[in-house]
Design a protein that fits this description.
3 domains, globular, Dimethylsulfoxide Reductase, domain 2, six-stranded mixed β-sheet, about 30% helix, alpha/beta, seven-stranded mixed β-sheet, 22 helices, Barwin-like endoglucanases, about 725 residues, Rossmann fold
Length: about 725
């Protein structure tokens, strides 16, 4: 660009003026003093993620008293130095204005509350009076605790100090219990949590309805990708092409509820063609001959008719699997209560592992090294207590099904108080109507939570717990290849008027005359005493976040670590006499599933990579990334129903229950035409959750039917069916 003489002169005048001004400024520079920068304090505080149950170790980065980010702890076996998408968003929960801020007492009706914010002293005095009255009138066993989360250890201790053993984890009857009991009845122990899958070293992996990756099991996701990169083979049995199924060598889109048919046919081929580990089976199992007789009619051709999986695919997988024994991992996942015969399906998975010799083998199921936390010195013995409510022959933990029934009927004894710690019970148990009827029978319902989730609307008292980034909790023991002890420490002081559960339980115990059970001044003093009893340094633990005990690691069977099975026979029980004596099938037995009524589709639900149940759907960052769930439907079925991708529909189940909120259609070839699928935890009813309220459909609202597993009381929910109604 060229300048005219006039433009040049104008520019010269402006520039000259600026230079002249600069001389005047420079004259004063000698006396000018730049303002001091505010000091920056940066620290890294050890913590353990609580966004999901995987509990990955992390460090919170704190700048001038504010958490600005989270980083994976490189010593962590659960995270292998990384955090998942959910875990990275934890600090946005910390600063969410939707959090519960003050204790509140309901002066209105349950379900239509009128809240009165109160002091902690008033809230805990109210609870103490109520609990003392219930204990005096009905006995301590009338008080029950629901717990899901690390902070629940304080509440379990509080309940035991009252004299009640009624501690319930919805995850047992409604999630992992069937799998754990299936393996317990076979090997004498369960799969633990985190699970003891040696995926990194596996050469053949079979996933049965396991959405690995979408449920973000951090270390397992990393390990299965390592195994695949090394050439491991992967087969996935699932009606839906999940993210992990998209990486499989065999995706088997099984007809829902027929998984057991395929598993029995695999066992049939393995035994008929003598593909099993003969030495392992001979030395360490009992009941092989009875198993061989029981599966002779479960042929691949029969299974193909039942399941829609080609017979040749079943044969090929059995043969390929046997080539890689014992480095085989057949996995039943975590959410295992589907159809009411779930322990038998999980027993079949356990038996496949036994036939491959994979229990205690590299690349199969490793043996976790276990260390125990000592008790705080000087705590008196707990009062004697009645047995907890289990209700089923092999319910090794109290079951929510038995508790809800006892609350409704008073049999075998009355239940009059529920304490729900970090459990959104209206999303955690099927048949919402039964849950609300049970709550209506209570004299007291206490909700302890970070967020005002739906269940708080039915509470008499709501106690705001601070987030995991604001509190100490009990030490966490890693039952993994290398045993470890991990520390959660507060990165910042509790915000608002929230409090940690160690403090809430201690103050409540003091009001109830139970202070002897909570003798510590604070959580740090408690943890220092525990570390002292373990002969480890609290200060070292605080610095590192984790202390490992590699000398106690013995992950595989060998001459120095011979096989041991905690079963009645001391061996792997292919044929279970325990089950036979309880009047149950001692070997897995197939029964035909219930088919959908005419015009209905089977409703399936599961996880999304960015959400943990309903607990995360309002967390700001995660909600922004995935604000509402979608309903997966096959293109053939969508065309038949006249549906378009992205269209909103309501769901109506077999009992006429219509979803309160609508859900967006996702048309995809990644699901069979006879079912639909949606991520769990959305369609929130609580208006105080300002982001999540009304976004997507609530699958649990539609689970009005469930079938109880006779072995351990699991609530099979995949017997519900829906039809779709277009939004006008």
């Amino acid at each position: 660009m060229s300048l005219s003489r006039r433009d040049f002169l104008k520019l010269s005048l402006v520039t000259g003026g600026a230079i002249a001004g600069a001389y005047k400024i420079n004259d004063s520079l000698a006396s000018f003093k730049a303002p001091a920068k505010p000091p920056v304090e940066v620290k890294y505080v050890p913590n353990i993620c609580e966004i999901c149950f995987w509990n990955c170790n992390l460090f919170a980065k704190v700048v001038n008293g504010k958490v600005v980010g989270l980083e994976g702890n490189p010593l962590s076996q659960r995270g292998r130095g990384m955090l998942c998408g959910r875990g990275n968003a934890g600090h946005s929960l910390l600063y969410d204005p939707d959090r519960l801020k003050k204790p509140r007492i309901n002066t209105g009706k349950r379900g239509d509350p009128k809240w009165r914010e109160v002091s902690w002293d008033e809230a805990l005095s109210f609870i103490a009076d109520k609990l003392n009255n219930i204990k005096s009138k009905y006995g301590a066993e009338a008080i029950a605790l629901f717990s899901h989360g690390s902070g629940g250890s304080w509440w379990k201790h509080f309940l035991a100090s009252l004299g009640s053993k009624n501690v319930f984890a919805p995850s047992f009857a409604n999630c992992r219990g069937a799998r754990d009991i299936g393996f317990y009845l076979t090997f004498g122990t369960d799969c633990s949590s985190p699970e003891i899958y040696d995926l990194e070293n596996s050469k053949f992996i079979l996933l049965v309805g396991y959405h690995l990756g979408e449920n973000a099991h951090n270390s397992q996701v990393q390990e299965i990708m390592i195994a695949l990169s090394r050439g491991a083979k992967l087969a996935v049995l699932d009606p839906r092409l999940s993210n992990i199924a998209s990486k499989a060598h065999w995706w088997l889109p099984v007809k829902p509820a027929t998984d057991l048919a395929v598993l029995l046919a695999l066992i049939h081929v393995i035994i008929k063609e003598e593909l099993y580990d003969k030495d392992y089976v001979s030395k360490y199992t009992i009941g092989f001959d009875k198993l061989r007789e029981a599966i002779k009619d479960y042929t691949p051709e029969w299974a193909s008719e039942e399941s829609d999986i080609p017979a040749q695919a079943i044969i090929d997988i059995a043969r390929e699997m046997s080539l890689h024994k014992p480095s085989v991992c057949a996995i039943g996942g975590r959410f295992s209560v589907w159809h009411g015969n779930d322990v038998q399906r999980c027993r079949a998975i356990a038996i496949i592992n036994a036939l491959m010799g994979s229990w205690g083998a590299k690349g199969g199921y490793y043996l976790p090294a276990i260390i125990s936390l000592p008790k705080y010195p000087g705590i008196p013995p707990y009062p004697e207590a009645k047995p907890p409510l289990t209700g089923y022959p092999f319910a090794l933990l109290p079951t929510t099904t038995a508790l809800r029934k006892a609350t409704l009927t008073g049999d075998p004894y009355p239940i009059k108080a529920w304490i729900a710690y970090s459990c959104n019970l209206l999303q955690a148990m099927p048949n919402r109507k039964e849950t609300l009827e049970a709550i209506d029978k209570l004299d007291l319902y206490i909700a302890v939570d970070v967020y005002p989730h739906e269940h708080t609307l039915w509470a008499d008292v709501v106690l705001p717990e601070c987030t995991y980034l604001e509190r100490y909790d009990d030490l966490i023991v890693d039952k993994m290849k290398i045993p470890a002890v991990s520390l959660r420490a507060p990165a910042v002081e509790p915000l608002f008027e929230s409090r940690p559960s160690w403090w809430i339980c201690k103050e409540l115990a003091n009001k109830m005359g139970l202070s002897a059970y909570f003798p510590w001044k604070d959580a740090e003093e408690y943890l220092r005493k525990i570390c002292e009893a373990m002969n480890i340094s609290f200060d070292e633990l605080y610095e590192k976040g984790i202390i490992l005990f590699p000398d106690q690691s013995k992950p595989y069977f060998d001459k120095d670590n011979p096989p041991h099975f905690d079963t009645p026979s001391g061996k792997i029980e292919l044929y279970s006499k325990q089950m036979e004596e309880a009047g149950l099938d001692p070997l897995p037995k197939y029964s035909k599933p219930i088919d959908p009524p005419q015009g209905y589709l089977r409703l399936l639900s599961g996880r999304h990579p960015l959400h943990s149940f309903s607990r995360t759907v309002n967390i700001p960052i995660l909600h922004e990334l995935y604000p509402e769930n979608e309903l997966w439907i096959n293109p053939k079925k969508a065309k038949e129903l006249g549906l378009k991708d992205g269209q909103y529909v309501r769901l109506i189940n077999q009992d006429g229950v219509r979803s309160t909120f609508s859900v967006k259609i996702k048309i995809t070839n990644r699901i069979r035409p006879d079912c639909v699928y949606m991520p769990h935890g959305h369609g929130v009813f609580a208006k105080e959750l300002s982001r999540a309220y009304g976004k997507g459909a609530n699958d649990n609202e539609l689970y009005t039917q469930y079938k109880i597993d006779p072995v351990m009381g699991g609530t099979g929910m995949r017997i519900n069916f829906v039809k779709l109604e277009k939004e006008v």
